[in-house]
Every structure is written in structure tokens, then in C-alpha cells.
Write a structure and sequence with these properties.
The protein has 183 residues and is an alpha/beta fold. The protein has helices at 29-45, 112-126, 144-157, 169-177; strands at residues 77-82, 87-93, 98-106, 133-138, 161-164. It has a domain at 74-177: Nucleotidyltransferase, domain 5 (2-Layer Sandwich), CATH 3.30.420. The protein is elongated. The chain starts with 28 loop residues before the first helix and ends in a 6-residue tail after the last helix.
Length: 183
């Protein structure tokens, strides 16, 4: 341990001799032990955040057959076309003869959630008790966040059947007509 030598600057006779007083020592061993015990306690008792992930069943990576086409009843499905500018174009039925024509909506509770909730209540009556199927088709102009938002809405509204598929050229033309396929 280092010592500090304090000299008054007086040298010679006649000065009073004072004895040096050493400062008291504090033993910090107990405090260090307590700190490590507290750190260990808090590390073991805190819950770590688990990453939130949604399970999505994806098809196998086998080659697709052209004959593997799934037919969906017109009165049971709505299609969501994810366009640019954080907008969605949706229609009920088939694009060639839609039951509800393509309509542009926003994400959120007043847009997408409202439409899905209304259709979830309406479809079982029209389809003989069968539940709603939602077809999600992202375009090249949509961003990944849009797809994540749509999947979140599927979970919030408790849609059991939904699928992500490729957008067709006819649907891209509809997006362009509605100015939802911009750069």
C-alpha cells in the first residue's frame, strides 16, 4: 500500500515531535460477498424476454405440380392484395366476378381489422356454416412490415384459415389501376 509522506517543511531543532496516525482500515470483504449474492439472486429471478414468433405452416420444398391447384369456394374467401404506400386492396370472391368489388383500405383497427371482422361474421351464413378463408398476396411494391401486420391481424381476429400465395398479373393490373403499385 502506498504511503503519503507529509513533511511540514521545518527541519531542525525545537519542533514538536508528533507521532504519525494511521487511518483506519475498512474490510470490504463482506460488502463484496453481499454484492455478488445480490447479483446472483437478481440474475436467477428475472425472466428473460423470449423472442416472439408466429408459427406459419409452410409447404414442403418439393417441386410443385401444375395440377396441385386448390379450389376455394367463391363465397368463402377474401383476397388481400398488398400494394405500395401501406395500402391493401381486398375483394370477396374471385377477381373476374367478385361478390364485393376490390376496395382499398389501410392497416389497423379501422381498416383491415374491421373488414376481416365483418367478413368473419358474414361468411358462415353465406357458406353454410363454413369459416372464412383469407388469401394474402403481397406484391413486389409492398414491404415486409405489411405482411407481418397482416399476419398479426389474422392472429388478433382469430382467423383459422389463411394462406400466402403469389400475386397474379391480373391482380397487379388492378393494383396499378387503383394507384397502389407505385415506386
Amino acid at each position: 500500500m502506498a504511503e503519503l509522506n507529509q513533511d511540514s517543511g521545518k527541519k531542525g531543532k525545537g519542533g514538536k515531535v508528533r507521532s504519525k496516525k494511521n487511518g483506519g482500515k475498512v474490510d470490504l470483504t463482506a460488502m463484496v460477498d453481499l454484492a455478488f449474492l445480490l447479483i446472483t439472486f437478481f440474475m436467477l429471478t428475472t425472466s428473460l424476454n423470449k423472442p416472439q414468433a408466429m408459427d406459419v405452416a409452410m409447404p414442403d420444398k418439393n417441386k410443385m405440380d401444375a395440377s396441385d391447384n386448390l379450389e376455394i369456394a367463391d363465397n368463402r374467401s377474401i383476397t388481400l392484395l398488398l400494394g405500395s404506400d401501406n395500402k391493401i386492396l381486398w375483394y370477396y370472391g374471385q377477381l373476374k366476378s367478385p361478390i364485393t368489388p376490390p376496395t382499398a383500405i389501410d392497416y389497423g383497427k379501422d381498416g383491415l381489422r374491421k373488414v376481416i371482422t365483418e367478413m368473419k361474421a358474414k361468411v358462415p351464413a353465406a357458406a353454410g356454416g363454413k369459416d372464412l378463408i383469407v388469401v394474402i398476396r403481397p406484391s413486389e411494391k409492398s414491404v415486409q412490415r405489411n405482411l407481418v401486420d397482416v399476419l398479426d391481424e389474422m392472429k388478433i381476429v382469430d382467423i383459422k384459415r389463411y394462406m400466402i400465395s403469389k400475386i397474379t398479373s391480373e391482380e397487379i393490373d388492378v393494383l396499378k389501376r387503383e394507384n397502389l403499385y407505385n415506386d
